[in-house]
Amino acid sequence: MMVYIKSLVFNxxxxxxxxxxxxGLLPIGMWSREGAYWVMRxxxxxxxxxxxxxxxxxxxxxxxxxxxxxxxxxxxxxxxDMMLLQITLPQAKFVMKQELRWAPFLGWYAMRVGTVSxxxxxxxxxxxxxxxxxxxxxxxxxxxxxxxxxGTRVPPGEEKPWKVGAWRLYNTFEHLPCIPVSLxxxxxxxxxxxxxxxxxxxxxxxEPIEHGLSAEVFxxxxxxxxxxxxxxxxxxxxxxxxxxxxxxxVTGSKA
Length: 255
Hints:
Blueprint: H1 2-24, H2 26-31, H3 33-55, E1 57-62, E2 70-74, H4 79-88, E3 92-97, H5 106-112, E4 116-118, H6 123-140, E5 144-148, H7 165-172, E6 178-183, E7 199-205, H8 215-240, H9 247-251
Parallel strand pairs: 1-7, 2-5, 2-6, 3-4, 3-5
Antiparallel strand pairs: 6-7
Helix pairs in contact: 1-3, 3-4, 6-7
């Protein structure tokens, strides 16, 4: 019963704190882009502090953290993903769906730090718009471009296609290292899950992908490397008795 109560308190506080930080620190965010980054990182650090002390939910970053310009092709499972990347990378710039521009607090701060928005369902025109926006952004303020290559949050155990937009950025920014990113956050903070179990969320930067690959080979390489790494993280959590029963999504029954 206690885990349900703690999860309820935490889930509510995530949004209450967003309003408090978003409004209370708005002058800092308006002052400069770096000020907006500071507010977002302050909020993220606070939420992870609450998660650790209320839920026993920690996080761990693995692999070499990119410090210069880079293209990061990421798995996406949780709201926590963006916060982990935000507090870890010097200048994180995300791709987000157009509708989130109008999300309270989140939308304004995201656009303030150089996040690029795209319209779902517009196919090639959306990909072209995304690429143009990032070319302008990188010229104005170089940083780490982050694309969630499946276009949405995908819980552990479920499958979604890896979209060609990631290859378009990879092909456009040939001078940038292309780094796959795996994680297990969906075991602890999933979109479809109410409970927030204790354990350790892991985000891992993998070896860069060589340039010059065709779209088909690139997407196959990204999927293979990231999914294999994620599966290893799931099994690691299993061995510790942490996280949700993700195998149920694969088998349709409890493992």
